[in-house]
């Protein structure tokens, strides 16, 4: 077997002993498309296989099978053909059986790529849409509505031939297969019809509308409606008129404008009733033939007199009798003409007269009914009350009353968030059908509560909580705190739990992670301990005894760090406690025997020290030792 690129686990190289997978050529939302060789018919085919990650979803599997079933019944040169379908059995690598279909292999570009490349002029755009419309005419004749006409689902071959593909959300319109999800919105937002946006049942005119969106993009390089979200685009499809192509792109011939506006009508009855009629009108316009809305006259004979929808028609006064026609001849002339040769003509004249009168009566009746129907259609309708209804219910009620709906939002203290507050025009006011009514939905009370749980949260968490509460972050300041970590929230301004207007700015107060040291001197140790370890400081205390004669013993006279200093949370504060200095120990006075040692005579300093320490040294301090000879004898024995 040939060597090709690696395949996902669970996908065999040879399917049904016939289709040999070569390489991946496309990837969609639910399936992958591979180039393969059909060894039986010796041709290249495209094999579409449901991916393993979507095979477990029953809705995706049903959509895949519906595509195969829908296309299998179609056979047209502008529709990608399906040759074969089957089911790959589950394996060790694939827990689910994988459906596949074998399709016609088409080389070329999608219409989306053609639009991006920008090589489409007016005449080429008409040719491309003709191919799409021919494919739609065929599928509609088989009661199959595609429902997802968009540039990515149209292939243009290298020879310029158009191929419509991807019938994954196609819907049969026969009696046995009616819509089962009329409320589900399916399709692609930029190209689906107003009835799809409203979740209504679709028919072949839905595809015609999408084809109109496709032609619009071919001319202007952008869809008729764009927006920030699919919901906003859907609202435009339902309630806004498209900008004519010649206004969106001044290079476009305005001859196409009435055709595009007709095919994009909100009311499907006002669109082209077949894809072929749409394509025919475009081809006429490309040849310079302007499009005019065809109307069927309600009557062909003139009606004279005045009338309205409630008055009886009055016939005009008869014209004077003339000789121009026997019907209006005078009585004498009638008798003159009442000859055998005129009898047969007389009967014919009477018959024609009766027919003419009958035609006038029919025409009059049709005119009256037409006027009445027009007045009924244009009759104003009262706007229904939608107060306190959900957005979905209120929108449905207004649309059932024939109005287009534009949803807007406002604050309300009386209506729960998500429910309708009012309409504009107001409830009960009569306006024309299909007018646009502004539906106002409550965003809840305009008053917002600053969350109380912001305290002791990080700055990032606090900012997110304020945004979710409909508030904005104002200025950020910092304060000391004994308990809140650095850069975490201490409080807010206005304070936590207070009521403010939605969108107001709330200032954040964050912790510095520091504490201002309080004064702890000139108090008892117990008082100092309580002051420093209080909840608002939570500092550690150490008392240090310091010998000093400047303060009373036990006095707290100094602290480190000093009062007023900013320190880290939980820091240690050392407090100096006064302690008296110890008394000096007296030096013993030497005895006379010791002082007369001939080998060690007393020094003058020793003698002076003795004088200074005591005044009672044998002479009661009255004698002086200045003249005393302190020199001990150097020889001889010591005498007692």
From TrEMBL:
Residue intervals passing through the bilayer: 347-368
Keyword Transmembrane among UniProt keywords: yes
Residue span, Protein kinase domain: 19-295
Organism: Glutamicibacter protophormiae
Database matches in SMART domains: PASTA, S_TKc
CDD domains, per the entry: PASTA_pknB, STKc_PknB_like
Catalysed conversion reaction: L-seryl-[protein] + ATP = O-phospho-L-seryl-[protein] + ADP + H(+); L-threonyl-[protein] + ATP = O-phospho-L-threonyl-[protein] + ADP + H(+)
Sequence ranges assigned to domain PASTA in this UniProt record: 377-443, 444-512, 513-579
NCBIfam families xrefs: PknB_PASTA_kin
Leading EC class: transferase
Biased composition (Low complexity): 614-626
Residues where ATP binds: 48
Region: Disordered, residue numbers: 575-640
Keywords, in A-Z order: ATP-binding, Kinase, Membrane, Nucleotide-binding, Transferase, Transmembrane, Transmembrane helix
GO MF term list: protein serine/threonine kinase activity
Name under which the protein is recorded: Serine/threonine-protein kinase
Enzyme Commission no: 2.7.11.1
Gene3D superfamilies in alphabetical order: 3.30.10.20, Phosphorylase Kinase, domain 1, Transferase(Phosphotransferase) domain 1
């Amino acid at each position: 077997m040939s060597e090709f690129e690696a395949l996902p686990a669970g996908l065999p190289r040879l399917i049904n002993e016939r289709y040999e997978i070569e390489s991946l050529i496309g990837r969609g939302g639910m399936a992958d498309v591979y180039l393969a060789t059909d060894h039986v018919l010796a041709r290249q085919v495209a094999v579409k296989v449901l991916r393993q990650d979507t095979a477990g979803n029953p809705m995706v599997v049903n959509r895949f099978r519906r595509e195969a079933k829908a296309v299998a019944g179609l056979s047209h040169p502008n529709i990608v053909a399906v040759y074969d379908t089957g089911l790959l059995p589950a394996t060790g690598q694939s827990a689910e059986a994988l459906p596949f279909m074998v399709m016609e292999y088409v080389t070329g570009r999608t219409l989306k790529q053609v639009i991006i490349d920008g090589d489409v002029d007016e005449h080429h755009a008409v040719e491309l849409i003709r191919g799409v419309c021919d494919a739609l005419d065929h599928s509609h004749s088989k009661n199959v509505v595609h429902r997802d006409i968009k540039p990515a689902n149209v292939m243009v071959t290298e020879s310029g031939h158009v191929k419509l593909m991807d019938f994954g959300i196609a819907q049969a319109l026969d009696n046995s297969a009616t819509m089962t999800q009329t409320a589900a919105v399916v399709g692609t937002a930029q190209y689906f019809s107003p009835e799809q946006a409203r979740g209504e049942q679709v028919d072949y005119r839905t595809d015609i509308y999408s084809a109109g969106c496709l032609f619009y993009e071919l001319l202007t390089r952008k869809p008729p409606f764009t927006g920030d979200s699919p919901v906003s685009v859907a609202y435009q499809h339902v309630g806004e008129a498209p900008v004519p192509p010649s206004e969106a792109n001044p290079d476009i011939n305005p001859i196409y404008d009435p055709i595009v506006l007709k095919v994009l009508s909100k009311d499907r009855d006002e669109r082209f009733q077949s894809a072929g009629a749409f394509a025919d009108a475009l081809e006429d316009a490309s040849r310079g033939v302007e499009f005019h809305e065809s109307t069927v006259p309600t009557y062909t004979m003139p009606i004279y007199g005045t009338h309205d929808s409630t008055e009886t028609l009055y016939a005009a006064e008869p014209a004077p009798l003339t000789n121009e026609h026997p019907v209006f001849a005078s009585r004498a002339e009638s008798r003159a003409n009442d000859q055998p040769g005129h009898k047969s003509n007389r009967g014919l004249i009477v018959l024609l007269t009766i027919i003419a009168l009958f035609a006038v009566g029919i025409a009059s009746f049709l005119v009256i009914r037409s006027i009445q129907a027009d007045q009924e259609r244009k009759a104003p309708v009262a706007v229904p009350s939608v107060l306190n209804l959900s957005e979905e219910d209120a929108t449905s009620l207004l649309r059932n009353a024939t109005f287009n709906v534009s949803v807007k939002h406002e604050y309300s203290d009386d209506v729960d968030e998500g429910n309708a507050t009012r309409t504009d025009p107001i409830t009960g006011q009569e306006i024309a059908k299909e007018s646009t009514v502004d539906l106002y939905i409550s965003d809840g009370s305009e008053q917002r509560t600053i969350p109380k749980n912001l305290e002791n949260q990080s700055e990032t968490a606090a900012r997110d909580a304020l945004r979710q509460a409909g508030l904005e972050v104002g200025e950020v300041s910092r304060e000391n705190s004994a308990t809140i970590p650095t850069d975490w929230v201490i409080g807010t301004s206005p304070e936590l739990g207070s009521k403010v207007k939605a969108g107001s700015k709330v200032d954040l107060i964050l912790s510095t992670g520091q504490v201002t040291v309080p004064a702890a001197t000139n108090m008892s140790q117990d008082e100092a301990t309580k002051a420093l370890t209080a909840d608002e400081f939570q500092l550690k205390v150490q008392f240090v005894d310091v010998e000093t004669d400047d303060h009373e013993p036990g006095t707290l006279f100094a602290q480190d760090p000093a009062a007023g200093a900013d320190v880290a949370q939980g820091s240690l504060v050392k407090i100096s406690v006064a302690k008296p200095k110890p008394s000096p120990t007296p030096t013993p006075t030497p005895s006379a025997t010791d002082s007369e040692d001939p080998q060690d005579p007393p020094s003058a300093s020793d003698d002076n020290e003795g004088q200074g320490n005591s005044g009672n040294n044998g002479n009661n301090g009255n004698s002086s030792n200045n003249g005393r000879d302190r020199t001990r004898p150097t020889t001889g024995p010591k005498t007692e």
